Amino acid sequence: MLRILIVVLFVAILVALFSSLWSLLRHPSGDGTTANRLLWRVILSALLVITLIYGFSTGHLRPHAPWQGSDHIHEQE
Q: What are the protein's UniProt keywords (predicted)?
């Protein structure tokens, strides 16, 4: 469930980013829509970071990097 939320937030960040780019290209006069859409991107990014912190701190998410420890390397063998 947490991984689905992370993917949804990431996709929403990308949508907000490209919609703000589209707004900037369509209305370069600065009517405020670009700033509002970028604000939504910042809010969604903060929510994503909070979700990742929650997932790692509760143990729902675990890093799978090879430099995290030797126990991960021994599990693969």
A: Membrane, Transmembrane, Transmembrane helix
Model confidence, pTM? 0.77
Q: Going by C-beta distance under 8 Å and a sequence separation of 6 or more, which residues neighbour residue 16? A: 37, 38, 40, 41, 44
Instruction: Encode pLDDT of 6-36 as tens digits.
Output: 999 999 999 999 999 998 888 877 778 888 9
Q: List helix spans (H) across the chain.
A: 2-26, 33-58, 70-76
Domain that holds residue 16: 2-59
Looking at the 3D structure of the chain, how many domains does it have? Answer: 1
Sign of CA dihedral 23, 29, 31, 37: positive
Q: Does 44 fall in a domain?
A: yes
* 66 is a domain residue: no
